[in-house]
Amino acid sequence: IRMGFVASAFGCPHSCVFCSINGQTGGSYLTRSPASVVRDIGLLGDIPIIRLVDANTFGSVERATALAQAIKAAGLNKQFLADIRSDTVVRYPEMLQLWKEAGLRAVIIGFEAIDDTSLASMRKANQARMNTEAITILHELGLTIVGDFIIHPDYGEEDFARLHRYLADHPIDLPMITVMTPLPGTPLHRTLRPRITNHDLDYYTLTNAVIPTRLDEQRFYRAYAGLIAQSHLHARI
């Protein structure tokens, strides 16, 4: 696949405890003008697929709408991949329809968890029902869903089973399942620092537990690997 990478925004207007993006811009959400983004896409020539590498391309719906209109008007004939929140999908499906017409083919969504208690603990400022509704809307629009989920080192086998059932009942084209990782500089790191047993950043890959797991480590990673294998049986990419 030939793919080009373009940034249209920096930072994020939200402050999830596990994420380092908000702190990189001091809590600001910075956007580039639609004209400059269209120019950069044009500079990539005949590369057919553009990955918008923003943490949240749709942090400002007004500006995201203007960008989609500019892309359509420029007749770029590209396919786009971009990050979006599930509550944005639910509240502004007409904007997503406009983006599809402009070439959007896939979205990356941080669903993170499947219950409101877990989402609140992550300071996600979202609800589980929004995640479920967004999946339905995106399927109706014909957009590919890359869905991020976070498992916590405190997971028991029943938690793994519950997430497996959710993914079986709510098909996502490509589930991406990571382990909750307290990245240095994040609120999560400050909270969990006393529990961290592995400070070697080579292990901070979002696939390793760097605090003690509730299950025996072997059982935890066996359940994690099994969840990934099972969820990809339902994947559609």
Helix-strand layout with pairing:
Blueprint: E1 3-6, E2 9-11, H1 21-24, E3 29-31, H2 34-43, E4 49-52, H3 61-74, E5 79-83, H4 86-91, H5 93-102, E6 104-112, H6 116-121, H7 128-141, E7 144-151, H8 157-169, E8 174-179, H9 187-192, H10 217-233
Parallel strand pairs: 1-4, 4-5, 5-6, 6-7, 7-8
Antiparallel strand pairs: 2-3
Helix pairs in contact: 2-3, 3-5, 8-10
Can you walk through the features of this model?
With 237 residues, the protein is of the alpha/beta class. 42% of the residues lie in helices and 18% in strands. The protein has a six-stranded parallel beta sheet. α2 crosses α3 (61-74) and α3 (61-74) runs parallel beside α5. The radius of gyration is 18 Å and the shape is globular.
Helix share of residues? Answer: 40-55%
Q: Could you tell me the strand content as a percent range?
A: 15-25%
The total count of strands amounts to 8
Alpha carbon gyration radius: 18 Å
Overall average residue pLDDT:
94
Strand order of the largest sheet: 1-4-5-6-7-8
Q: Can you tell me the overall shape?
A: globular
Oligomer: single chain
Low-confidence stretches: none
Spatial separation of the terminal alpha carbons = 14 Å
Q: How would you sum up the major sheet?
A: 6 strands, parallel
- Structural class call reads alpha/beta
The H-and-E topology, N to C, reads as EEHEHEHEHHEHHEHEHH
Number of helices: 10
